[in-house]
């Protein structure tokens, strides 16, 4: 209990330490407009993961649509993940990591029915683009389109949709350890060092020219 309360307070403090966790990001590489949220995982400045989403302006509630996700991750991180429906179980999970020479980034589609190692999930597919995927001396960045992340079916048969016009709760996680075989999207992955949540207004990363801009990405 003590640790649960302390972890909760620490995360509140981490979030409070950064005045603008959320903002618009006009990406010079992909030309897409992303809405982004910065999620710190350590008290020392700069240790956090940026999550960005870009959605088509034409997307409406209760329908399937593609989403482009961009993540900026400190080099010390072995894998980073996103739960599209706000947690770990019963929603599409995205896991990203660098390959063995640290130059390329892989995106892996997973699903967990509980708090156990997630399996491969074919209901969502990710296309990683060279445009907007890069590594420098401090961070790695990945840009990937997801088809199948805006809607999914829970085990009880309930169909869930991402809201393209407003707030959505996401789950996120990271591990300092790399997957066992970082050259394979289906590699075994070690458990996270932290599993957390954030809420972000996906509707603020809206793109009129979404299909055209995405078709130009390589
Ligand atoms: C690799 C095997 C994994 C195992 C064994 C595992 C296990 C667990 C366990 C036991 C918890 C609850 C206790 C805690 O807070 O630590 C948890 C929470 C969480 N995990 Fe995982 N996890 C795994 C992978 C992942 C992945 C790949 C993601 C995201 C892509 C993820 C996202 C989360 C999130 C967001 C939470 C907190 C919210 C919730 O409980 O749903 N986990 N995980």
From TrEMBL:
Residue runs in coiled coils: none
Keyword Signal: yes
Sequence ranges assigned to domain Cellobiose dehydrogenase-like cytochrome in this UniProt record: 25-211
Highest taxon of the lineage: Eukaryota
Pfam families assigned to the protein according to its UniProt record, in alphabetical order: CDH-cyt
Signal sequence, renumbered to the chain: 1-19
UniProt keyword list: Signal
Keyword Signal assigned: yes
UniProt cross-references to InterPro entries, sorted A to Z: Cellobiose_DH-like_cyt (IPR015920)
SUPFAM superfamilies: CBD9-like
Protein name, per record: Cellobiose dehydrogenase-like cytochrome domain-containing protein
Organism of provenance: Immersiella caudata
Source lineage: Eukaryota, Fungi, Dikarya, Ascomycota, Pezizomycotina
């Amino acid at each position: 209990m003590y640790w649960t309360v302390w972890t909760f307070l620490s995360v509140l403090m981490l979030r409070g330490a950064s005045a603008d966790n959320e903002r618009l990001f006009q990406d010079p590489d992909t030309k897409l407009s992303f809405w982004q949220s910065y999620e710190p995982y350590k008290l020392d400045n700069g240790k956090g993961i940026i999550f960005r989403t870009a959605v088509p302006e034409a997307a409406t509630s209760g329908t399937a649509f593609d989403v482009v996700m961009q993540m900026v991750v400190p080099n010390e991180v072995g894998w980073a993940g996103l739960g599209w429906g706000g947690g770990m179980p019963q929603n599409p999970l995205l896991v990203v990591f660098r390959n063995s020479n640290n130059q390329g980034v892989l995106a892996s589609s997973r699903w967990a029915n509980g708090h156990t190692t997630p399996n491969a999930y074919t209901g969502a597919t990710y296309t990683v683009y060279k445009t907007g995927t890069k590594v420098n001396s401090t961070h790695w960045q990945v840009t990937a389109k997801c088809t199948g992340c805006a809607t999914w079916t829970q085990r009880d048969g309930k169909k869930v949709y991402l809201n393209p016009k407003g707030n959505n709760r996401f789950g996120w996680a990271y591990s300092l350890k790399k997957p066992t075989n970082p050259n394979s999207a289906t590699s075994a992955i070690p458990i996270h060092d932290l599993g957390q949540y954030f809420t972000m207004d996906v509707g603020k990363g809206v793109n009129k020219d979404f299909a055209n801009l995405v078709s130009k990405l390589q």
